[in-house]
Amino acid sequence: LSLISDFLFKFLVIGSAGAGKSCLLHQFIETKFKQDSNHTIGVEFGSRVVNVGGKTVKLQIWDTAGQERFRSVTRSYYRGAAGALLVYDITSRETYNALTDWLTDARTLASPNIVIILCGNKKDLDADREVTFLEASRFAQENELMFLETSALTGENVEEAFLKTARTILNKIESGELDPERMGSGIQYGDSSLRQLRQPRGTTAQTKQQCNC
Ligand SMILES: Nc1nc2c(ncn2[C@@H]2O[C@H](COP(=O)(O)OP(=O)(O)O)[C@@H](O)[C@H]2O)c(=O)[nH]1
Ligand SMILES: [Mg+2]
Fold first, then answer.
1. What is the pTM of this model?
2. How many CA atoms lie within 13 A of 157 on its CB side?
3. What atom in ligand 1 is closest to the CA of residue 125?
4. N or C: at which end does the chain have fewer Cβ atoms within 10 angstroms?
5. How far is 183 from 188, CA to CA, in rounded Å?
């Protein structure tokens, strides 16, 4: 775990194949568009440290990396996720129609408390649009999701999507609605907050089970 971060959040990027999940992750991590869309070299994992509301948060982001084609995204992939980007392609109604299934998986396999932002990707392809902003924002409202239209190509709203989700999780921690110490919360304390806080018994063990990413 990063020596400088206050928290670590596990994020997922979910949605139908072709919606632009890998490109969104790549744009967020590398701040550029992934030109080579070779699926076999797809990014499966990325992390970036961000500053949100005065806190340093390491986002550890998991991409389905092609598994969605076979509907074999496993339970272990979802486990312990604090946030998710639920992605569809605004030029493909098919990807939009699949949202309910993805949402059900996220809430049952990750956590009912998972913070989800709906991303209508490929905003740059407005001429080919099959799903209106209004229709998707109604869906978001009905399902208690945040909503943004994004473009992994131009980068529009890509950072915003990740940061908005992180900010919402932090707010829920501060209001007590989310408990970072609950198993499977998808939230862990970073070393810098461990140094500052007088930790209650039990939290140290939880921070030990980290990977080195
Ligand atoms: N125009 C445009 N194309 C995109 C955008 N995001 C992804 N793509 C393209 O859509 C295709 C699928 O992207 P990819 O990230 O592999 O989708 P995934 O299967 O959801 O991971 C690729 O050809 C990308 O170049 C976007 O925002 N705008
Ligand atoms: Mg992909």
1. 0.85
2. 17
3. 1
4. C
5. 10
Q: Which residues, 6 or more positions from 112, have their beta carbon under 8 angstroms from its beta carbon? A: none
Q: Quick one: which ligand is closest to 151's CA?
A: 1
If one residue of 16, 23, 36 were mutated to test the ligand 1 pocket, choosing by the most ligand atoms within 8 A of its CB, it would be: 23
Task: Give the residue among 125, 59, 133 at the shortest CA–CA distance from 96.
Answer: 133
Q: For residue 151, which atom of ligand 1 is closest to its CA?
A: 27
Q: What dihedral do alpha carbons 26, 31, 32, 33 form, nearest 10°? A: 40
Residue 66 has what pLDDT? 65
pLDDT tens profile 70-101: 655 666 788 889 999 999 999 999 999 999 99
**Vertex 39, ends 25 and 103: CA angle to 5°?**
55
152 touches ligand 1 (CB under 6 Å): yes
| CB-count exposure of residue 36 (10 Å: 0-12, 13-18, 19+) | exposed
Kindly report the backbone phi and psi dihedral angles of residue 190, in degrees, each rounded to the nearest multiple of 5, phi listed first: -85, 170
**Ligand 1 pocket residue status of 153, Cβ below 6 Å:** yes
